[in-house]
Design goal:
The protein has a single domain, classed as Thiol Ester Dehydrase, Chain A. It has 3 helices and 6 strands. The chain has helices spanning 10-16, 21-24, 56-73; strands at residues 28-32, 37-42, 80-90, 98-108, 112-120, 126-137. Strands 1-2-4-5-6-3 form a 6-stranded antiparallel β-sheet. The radius of gyration is 15 Å and the shape is globular. It starts with 9 loop residues before the first helix and ends with a strand. The model has no long low-confidence stretch (mean pLDDT 97).
């Protein structure tokens, strides 16, 4: 059963992220499942650090973008979700291609959501594990 409370599809996600950090970094949402979102980021001149590796902060931007988007669309109309806490464990570097993330809810509560995000390189190797806690704000 889908967790989404608002209409969601890839075209809506692309339009919502125009002129944002997501678009600037080349992040693309690539799949919407019943209980997950998948997105990817290129490892290129926009996203690497000086040693040619995907910048750890970019991995966190990817994770937070997926988790916060998921939280928003899993809420009834009028509710908002804002980031409360995020952590990331960087396990392996990526130097080329794409890093793809999958975000799934661990907890969807009345006042908080917790999302788990795994990032993988093109070889399918786990590069980063992240957990995002969102505060849920009721309509004003």
């Amino acid at each position: 059963m889908p967790i989404w409370k608002k209409p969601i599809d890839l075209a809506l996600l692309k339009a919502a992220n125009r002129n944002t950090a997501v678009e600037h970094l080349g992040i693309e949402f690539v799949e919407v499942g019943d209980d997950f979102l998948r997105a990817r980021v290129p490892v290129d001149h926009r996203t690497i650090q000086p040693f040619g590796l995907l910048h750890g902060g970019v991995s966190v931007v990817l994770a937070e973008s997926m988790g916060s988007t998921g939280a928003y669309y899993a809420l009834p109309e009028g509710y908002r979700a804002v980031g409360l806490d995020i952590n990331a464990n960087h396990l392996r570097s990526a130097t080329s291609g794409w890093v793809t993330g999958t975000a799934k809810p661990v907890h969807i509560g009345r006042t908080t959501h917790v999302w788990h995000i795994d990032l993988h390189n093109e070889a399918g190797e786990l590069t980063c594990v992240s957990r995002l806690t969102m505060a849920i704000l009721a309509p004003r």
